[in-house]
Amino acid sequence: MYASAATGHSVDVDGAAVYFARAGYGEPVVLLHGLGEAGLIWHPNVGPLAERFSVYVPDLWGHGRSADLGRYDFLTGARMVTGFLDALGIDSAHLVGNSLGGYAAAGVAIHHPERVRSLVLEDAGGLGRRLPFFLRLMTLPVAGEFMAAPRRASIRRLMGIVLHDPSLISPGFLDALVAERSRPGNAEAMLRILRCGANILGMKRGADISSKLGAIRAPTLIAWGRQDPIFPVRIAERAAGLIPNAVLDIYDDCGHWPHYEHADRFNAAAAALVERAEAARAQATAG
Question: What is the pLDDT of residue 3?
Fold first, then answer.
């Protein structure tokens, strides 16, 4: 993993290999990345969180070094997370998800609440039907294939969308992103995943989980960049009103990646949520 002391491993989940990095000791925290990315986007967070917890950073199916499952549906991400936990013998964990990873984490919290000790939804997808034009355009044949090609210039432009301050992306990190996106089959898998849940009009109706957010019972932190051009902050505000016990944390001067642009604050907030959840869990067990 880029700029991290985490060690790499691979496990079989439903017949498809899932690569992951692991660091630290303690209660399990799983970091889930977004569409077209890989676990390396969490490199500012792994070390600090691993000082207190056991941190797991998988590449989602069809991303990074993980295998392409080949078939995707609305619940594929949630199935991968629960299967990943099963493969590691982890009964429940604290889930932190950005964008597509947030969609997967929310899916686990909705359908398998017993597996989620706490939940961080960071600029998460699927909390409404709105999608930016560039993602809707990528659902179209030919246009999507052209836009998904792992060219350095196009990934740099994408970082200009993702980050409020794209100067934070170092040349080395950009090289690492390009290398991950260039792995055989990754671009094709990304398009299959996107087209499964979206079309030119936006998120498909069945992929929108906003009506199910009230079923989430895990302590939840909704972390959002105020200047996120992909999922506007009003989505976070609405979600915070739907999820019981949710806390909304808005990051000023921040785009789609609060964990990257404001890493210290994000790490502290995520760690505090985990510790509160563990304290409540211990109290409930003792009672």
Answer: 41
Alpha-helix runs per DSSP H in the chain: 43-50, 76-88, 100-111, 133-138, 143-148, 152-162, 171-181, 186-197, 233-242, 258-261, 263-286
Residue 189 has, within 13 A of its CA and on its CB side, a CA count of: 25
Q: Please give the full DSSP string across 216-259, using - where no structure is assigned.
A: --S-EEEEEETT-SSS-HHHHHHHHHHSTTEEEEEESS--S-HH
Paired with 119 in beta bridges are: 95, 220
pLDDT at site 287: 65
**Nearest Cα to Cα of residue 61 among 48, 75, 77:** 77
Per-residue pLDDT tens for 221-236?
Answer: 999 999 999 999 999 9
CA dist 266 and 279 (Å) reads: 20
- Side-chain-facing half-sphere of 115: CA atoms under 13 Å: 22
Q: What sign does the CA torsion over 147, 96, 236, 241 have? A: positive
For residue 224, what are the CA distances in angstroms to 99, 254, 261, 280?
Answer: 10, 8, 11, 25
Would you give the DSSP letter of residue 205? G
As beta bridge partners, residue 247 has 221
Task: Look at strands 54-58 and 16-23 and give their pairing.
Answer: antiparallel
Tell me the average pLDDT across 239-268: 97
pLDDT digits (tens, 9 = 90+) for 51-65: 999 999 999 999 999
Contact predicate 55/93, CB 8 Å = no
